[in-house]
Prior knowledge:
Blueprint: H1 2-16, H2 20-46, H3 52-57, E1 59-60, H4 63-68, H5 72-75, H6 83-100, H7 106-130, E2 142-143, H8 147-160, E3 165-168, E4 172-175, H9 176-188, H10 196-216, H11 224-230, E5 246-250, E6 253-257, E7 263-266, E8 272-275, H12 282-312, H13 319-327
Antiparallel strand pairs: 1-2, 3-4, 5-6, 7-8
Helix pairs in contact: 1-2, 2-6, 2-7, 6-8, 7-8, 7-10, 8-9, 8-10, 9-10
Amino acid sequence: MLRELRSRVEQLSYRVxxxxxxxxxxxxxxxxxxxxxxxxGFSTMLGLPPRWLFNLLAVPAWLPQLILEPWTxxxxxxxxxxxxxxxxxxxxxxxxxxxxxxxxxxxxLRNLYILGGLAGGLLYILAYNLFPYFAGVLPxxxxxxxxAAVMAITIAAAYDDPDREVYLYGLLAVRVKWxxxxxxxxxxxxxxxxxxxxxxxxxxxxxxxxxYIHMLRRGTDLGAWLNHLLDWGKARPQRQGQRPRFRRYRGxxxxxxxxxxxxxxxxxxxxxxxxxxxxxxxxxxxxxxxxQAEKEAEExxxxxxxxxxxxxxxxxxxxxxxxxxxxx
Length: 328
């Protein structure tokens, strides 16, 4: 069932011209919103407390409550209550995630979304506990929504390609750096307004968006730890220094073994004899050379597609080129 769902989400993503990662982030936000509305309606009819789901998913600012609900620091960035809230968040995400992907990968988009949400939530919690201005509302204050994560992607896309022009409402050409600066300025001026928590979270997302691209340009990916965490179950190359897996042969059966420095092979008389794995030879060297050549050819192809994307835009790419670029 999960495999079928994944296949459908990816097919729909390709069909509307976005990457599967974008499709999954949109799908999760929409699915949580719809499920929340349905559960909220049934809860009201059953006489359950109206805010139990809100308290389960929204992140609290009060530290004693946060200690009891640490998962909310993740769930809050996918949770929306109002239609207008999720609509504008996802519209903003749709626009700037596509700009971000013109220069960066889908993994980096996923990682930045999570990092932006975490940074926004942490700055919100810190500010509400640090400044006396929020003392009166601190015990009941909670934050929700993808705004901080989307702001991180917005600032990252603008910092990465500041002079790229976009058309507001299809009419007015504006460079993305001015849109990003205006968004940050509005949030800075709104930190004591009616949505103070949201504005503070936006600033946290903006900071991590700037730092993410700044560090990438210096060779450090702040989201590398998320690759190890979220891609844990996928095939990975053997790490340097890791003990190789040897093989134990018994009759015609072959079993993997990672213990010991050698393995043994059963002889015809029922006795075991030591077996030494084959060493690298000319054939292995040739295979490595072929693999390296294939990687270099793939990288050249990706660079060609990116250049074509820059010159002619997304519609200029063929279906095969889009698939290669998104898979990368």
